[in-house]
From TrEMBL:
<feature type="transmembrane region" description="Helical">
    <location>
        <begin position="12"/>
        <end position="30"/>
    </location>
</feature>
<feature type="transmembrane region" description="Helical">
    <location>
        <begin position="161"/>
        <end position="180"/>
    </location>
</feature>
<keyword id="KW-0812">Transmembrane</keyword>
<keyword id="KW-0472">Membrane</keyword>
<protein>
    <submittedName>
        <fullName>Transmembrane 4 L6 family member 1</fullName>
    </submittedName>
</protein>
<feature type="transmembrane region" description="Helical">
    <location>
        <begin position="91"/>
        <end position="115"/>
    </location>
</feature>
<feature type="transmembrane region" description="Helical">
    <location>
        <begin position="50"/>
        <end position="70"/>
    </location>
</feature>
<dbReference type="GO" id="GO:0016020">
    <property type="term" value="C:membrane"/>
</dbReference>
<comment type="similarity">
    <text>Belongs to the L6 tetraspanin family.</text>
</comment>
<keyword id="KW-1133">Transmembrane helix</keyword>
<dbReference type="Pfam" id="PF05805">
    <property type="entry name" value="L6_membrane"/>
</dbReference>
<dbReference type="InterPro" id="IPR008661">
    <property type="entry name" value="L6_membrane"/>
</dbReference>
Length: 200
């Protein structure tokens, strides 16, 4: 098994997932494609946590770049022994994977809290901007008849549920991939990066 090839495969997958997380988080800022709610500060507190941009995005792009470039990284050769240097590089990739674990974990936690807390919206009952579903502890997700309480932004409940769910799934997959790379990096560091005949 080529540990370096596995790391590059994980890296490319993380790159795609991180970009998708950034896009999903940006969409959260513009319900229905409208910018006025962001400019008027009528966004939920979990929308503004940058969990998809910073957590599932940039903090996952770091290990993605490390894993993709791992094949050309020989860690100075470790006393002139190239195989040892590549094993050293594989072990160093474990640190990058931990950065990805932190970022994706942050994305998962904030997304789960955002889903549980519900959207920030203008309701016809209170005639004010509130969190109408806070007390339901996520129960509102299955009470479709209550979603109409939110008048503005239109369809904000569906918008939030969809994007927070997407970010939750993306963050979860990123977390699993980074965990896989931790195991791969340790094994690759101990066993060597690749079979010698593949490097010739």
């Amino acid at each position: 098994m080529c540990f370096g090839r596995c790391a590059r495969c994980v890296g490319y997958k993380l790159l795609i997932l991180a970009l998708l997380s950034i896009v999903a988080n940006i969409l959260l800022y513009f319900p229905n494609g409208e910018t006025r709610f962001a400019s008027e500060h009528h966004l939920g507190k979990y929308v503004e946590c940058l969990h998809g941009i910073l957590g599932g995005g940039f903090l996952v792009l770091i290990p993605a770049a490390v894993f993709i470039g791992l094949h050309n990284h020989d860690c100075c050769g470790c006393f002139g022994h190239e195989g040892c240097g590549k094993s050293c590089a594989m072990l160093s990739s474990v640190l990058a994977a931990f950065v990805g674990i932190l970022g994706s974990g942050y994305c998962v936690i904030i997304s789960a809290l955002g889903l549980s807390h519900g959207p920030y919206c203008f309701t016809h009952l209170e005639r004010n901007w509130i969190y109408p579903f806070t007390e339901s502890s996520g129960g509102y997700l299955f009470e479709y008849n209550k979603w109409s309480q939110c008048q503005e932004p239109q369809n904000i409940v569906q918008w939030n549920i969809t994007l927070f769910s997407v970010l939750l799934v993306l963050g979860g997959i990123e977390f699993i991939l980074c965990f896989i790379q931790i195991i791969n990096g340790i094994l690759g560091g101990l066993c060597g990066l690749c079979c010698s005949h593949e490097e010739v």
